[in-house]
Specification:
There is one protein chain. By secondary structure, the chain is α+β, with helices and mostly antiparallel strands. It is built from three helices and four strands. A four-stranded mixed sheet has the order 1-2-3-4. A hairpin with a 7-residue loop joins strand 1 and strand 2. The chain is flat and about 55 Å long.
Length: 134
Amino acid sequence: MNETLDLYLRAHTVVLDQAKKRTRRETTTALSKLPKWPDYAVVFGCESRTGITQELTFGFYRILKLNGDSYVLEEEGGFFDDDLPLDERKLLGAYFRIAVSDKTSFPPNFPRLSRSDFIRGVFYRYARQGAPAD
């Protein structure tokens, strides 16, 4: 059986100048110059199928912004797998229509995005700014 499966990992990256190879001391110095707490944090949780493929079904995310010594909710929403079956998508859509965000806004806003829109429009946008993902 030669079935190819995708592998997804959780990671936190730190962008360093890669123009030259750094010594351990230079790397430690560069890391110590990074802020202890990033300006933004992306927090998300996902639900998946229980089978061997563990395919994504849906998830929720929050964008938190550092304000003084604590993080404040900036944005939150949900996302679903691009290939989620229509009946499951409708069920999830019904929930999204009544979901109330902890972020006060008028009119109320609780975005629902496809997985690919979440990755492009939310995850990558904050990853480029150095926000950790959890």
